[in-house]
Amino acid sequence: MYEELEKRRILIAEDEEPLRDLIQRHLESLGYEVTSAEDGIDALEKFRGKGPWDMIALNIMMPRLDGFAVLQEIRKTSEVPVIFLSALDSSDDIVRGFDLGADDYITKPFTLREVAVRIKAILRRVDWLRRSPIRPAVLCNGDIELDTKLRQVIIRGEPVHFTPVEYNLLQYFLMHIDAVIKKDELFREVWGYEFKGSTNLVEVAVRRLRAKIEDDPANSQYIRTVRGVGYKFCHVEPSDAS
């Protein structure tokens, strides 16, 4: 059974009407207020005209404007959580989704329960971040500075853009320097749901994070892979340290 939920507003953009209706009815049965859009242009119009939203779920291969383009427009003005629901399951597509600022990516076919669990997990994480106790305003390691109040990351003195998932992953690593972190722990603490057997989301996110924080991602000094377990975020001295 699902916990009783506050009334949250969700926008779903899916061009396949039967699937769109199934998702909408299921989420409404769980207490969400759901609005649907039949294509990318419709989604943008409803995003701009009927907000604010607590969550947006986007298909990618939609007519008139695809989901990637919709998310690009959304991110110009909003950090609302966005989840992709897509038949595109290659690593390149998943990486692109996260690069554009997606919070999660579910590949088709999926169950209605899986969609509901993922949405609930993201909303729970957003609530936790809003209510979390005071933590250090700036987390540092090596040449990385993460400002938790501004949600800004500085690397080697320069600001670097991070997607929501990349930011949350880096923050979790910075709060657990030199600890070995299992992949299922990252699923639970960063994505907000229990490990289900596939490590693709974690591996893609870690690869993208390495590309942004490491001088040489192939020879990582910050994120070390612990074979068969997960990762270790290592303490590193600043490059200008004497």
Describe the protein's topology.
Elements: E1 9-13, H1 17-29, E2 33-37, H2 40-49, E3 55-58, H3 67-74, E4 82-86, H4 91-99, E5 104-107, H5 112-131, E6 138-141, E7 144-147, E8 152-155, E9 158-160, H6 164-174, E10 180-182, H7 183-191, H8 200-213, E11 223-226, E12 230-233
Parallel strand pairs: 1-2, 1-3, 3-4, 4-5
Antiparallel strand pairs: 6-7, 7-8, 8-9, 10-12, 11-12
Helix pairs in contact: 2-3, 4-8, 6-7, 6-8
Question: Please, could you describe this protein's structure?
Answer:
By secondary structure, the protein is of the alpha/beta class. It is 39% helix and 20% strand. It has two domains: 9-130, Rossmann fold; 132-233, Winged helix-like DNA-binding domain superfamily/Winged helix DNA-binding domain (Arc Repressor Mutant, subunit A, Orthogonal Bundle), CATH 1.10.10. It has helices at residues 17-29, 40-49, 67-74, 91-99, 112-131, 164-174, 183-191, 200-213, and strands at 9-13, 33-37, 55-58, 82-86, 104-107, 138-141, 144-147, 152-155, 158-160, 180-182, 223-226, 230-233. It has a five-stranded parallel β-sheet with strand order 2-1-3-4-5, sandwiched between helices. Strands 6-7-8-9 form a four-stranded antiparallel β-sheet, covered by helices on one side. α4 links the parallel β4 and β5. α2 packs parallel to α3, α6 (164-174) packs across α7 (183-191) and α6 (164-174) crosses α8 (200-213).
Q: Can you say what the CATH homologous superfamily of the largest domain is?
A: Response regulator
What is the number of E strands? 12
The fraction of residues assigned to DSSP E strands is 15-25%
What's the number of domains?
A: 2
CATH class of the largest domain: Alpha Beta
| Backbone structural class | alpha/beta
Shape: globular
Low-confidence stretches: 1-5
Portion of residues within helices? 25-40%
Major sheet size, sense and barrel closure: 5 strands, parallel
What is the helix tally? 8
Q: Provide mean pLDDT, rounded.
A: 88
Radius of gyration: 18 Å
- Give me the CATH fold name of the largest domain: Rossmann fold
